[in-house]
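Researcher: We're reviewing a set of sequences before deciding which ones to prioritize for further study. For each one, I'd like a predicted 3D structure that I can look through quickly. This is DUF305 domain-containing protein. If possible, include the structure in token form so it fits the rest of the review sheet.
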Amino acid sequence: MKTSYFSAAALACALAFTAPALAQEHKMMKHDAMAMQPTGDQGPSSKAFTEANTKMHKDMSIKFSGDADKDFVRGMIAHHQGAIDMAKVELKYGKDEEIRKLATDIIAAQEGEIKQMKAWLAKHGG
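Model: Here's the predicted structure for DUF305 domain-containing protein, in token form for your review sheet.
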């Protein structure tokens, strides 16, 4: 009888420690799935933004190496490419000249930074 009591106690402890972690993981997975599904308007620009955002988040899911510098650069390359892709959506569908200029500036800046980061990765064993 003591064995079953200790087994039940061990199980209760294991659940007490793992249930919150599993709930958090489920919440994160649910959030990620929700982030990938379009909400609101389903017009052409909204669909294009959804596609760019989904691709960016997928590409940012890198395998971490433990080297903060390399992991940062790898993640930021995808993040910057996402900004470029979204800016291109603005240029295709947007009408406000101030925001279109901002999108053009973002493309130029992000392309330059991606080039710099790729060169840094090549120099540091990528």
